[in-house]
Specification:
Helices cover 30% and strands 13% of the residues. The protein is α+β, with helices and mostly antiparallel strands. It has one domain: 2-Layer Sandwich (Alpha-Beta Plaits). The strands form four sheets. Strands 8-1-10-9 form a four-stranded mixed sheet, covered by helices on one side. This is HmeE2. Pfam families: Fer4_11. It comes from Desulforapulum autotrophicum (strain ATCC 43914 / DSM 3382 / VKM B-1955 / HRM2) (Desulfobacterium autotrophicum).
Length: 274
């Protein structure tokens, strides 16, 4: 395994220098990426399906308490480490102090001017300055992270969900550089000591791996709504953007919404009702 990982790092480094080995990388990665995509499919008749999954966040229904519940539900469901406290020194005596800039985030609160820098203006309504805007992976229709990944560890399903194969990630962070939304996190250290209670239904990650929101693909496959939706008290809705009769389309038809950095052409699948 170590030899294989080292080989991939060498290949990725050469690719970054522009020496033209991209075809070789794609050839090596294609079969495994295809296998990963196949593994995400399900034959469960109760599975929730869509032609293109999307998310609508109603900012009028958000407050600090609801936002905190959403972040915590996501963290517990997907074993996202919490670096705001030190692990038990008796269990993990070798852990060094944590750099908070290395925090791992799937969905988190952000200020309006950081989430929507292109929509800031001199007379912005005061309520927007104080709202807890929740940001996450936008599962873009034209996802630049997918194009940047040299091993296809990041890939997009036919239903629009952008997923990661953690076992194929070589930690090059090309996807992080390509994402204009800062929606990916890198594990600079072993995240496991910082998980209070491990959810056995979802894999933990390792040092040197990138991770991000997966739109609760594993829950959708079981016929369950995403964890964030269940605790959002109506603030988050997930559904099929291409189905004119879906709940998300009804919300978008009735309410004014915006998306992050639309001018970049990535076509985000996350909408914010204002």
């Amino acid at each position: 395994m170590k030899k294989s990982r080292r080989s991939f790092l060498k290949v990725a480094g050469v690719s970054a220098l522009g020496i033209g080995v991209a075809p070789a990388i794609k050839a090596v990665a294609a079969s495994s990426a295809h296998a990963a995509a196949e593994a995400t499919k399900t034959k469960n008749p109760e599975a929730l399906t869509a032609k293109r999954w999307g998310m609508v966040i109603d900012t009028n229904k958000l407050n600090d308490e609801v936002a905190a519940k959403i972040v915590e539900a996501c963290r517990k469901t997907h074993n996202v480490p919490d670096f705001h406290h030190e692990p038990d020194p008796e269990k993990f005596p070798k852990n060094r102090p944590v750099n908070q800039k290395q925090e791992v985030k799937w969905i988190w609160e952000e200020h309006f001017h950081n989430a929507f820098p292109d929509k800031e203006d001199e007379f912005l309504a005061e309520k927007f300055k104080n709202l807890p805007f929740l940001v996450t992976c936008n599962h873009c229709k034209n996802a630049p992270c997918v194009q940047a990944c040299p091993t296809q560890a990041t890939f997009k399903r036919d239903d629009g969900i952008v997923l990661m194969d953690f076992h194929r990630c070589i930690g090059c962070r090309f996807c992080m550089a390509a994402c204009p939304f800062g929606s990916r996190s890198f594990n600079f250290r072993d995240p496991r000591p910082f998980i209070d209670e491990v959810n056995p239904d979802f894999p933990t990650r390792t040092k040197g791996v990138v991770e991000k929101c997966n739109l609760c693909a594993e829950r959708l496959a079981k016929g369950l709504q995403p964890a964030c939706v269940e605790v959002s008290e109506g603030a988050i809705t997930v559904g099929d953007l291409e189905d004119p009769n879906s709940e998300v389309r009804a919300l978008l038809n009735e309410k004014y919404s915006i998306r992050r950095k639309q001018e970049l052409g990535t076509e985000p699948s996350v909408y914010y009702i204002m």
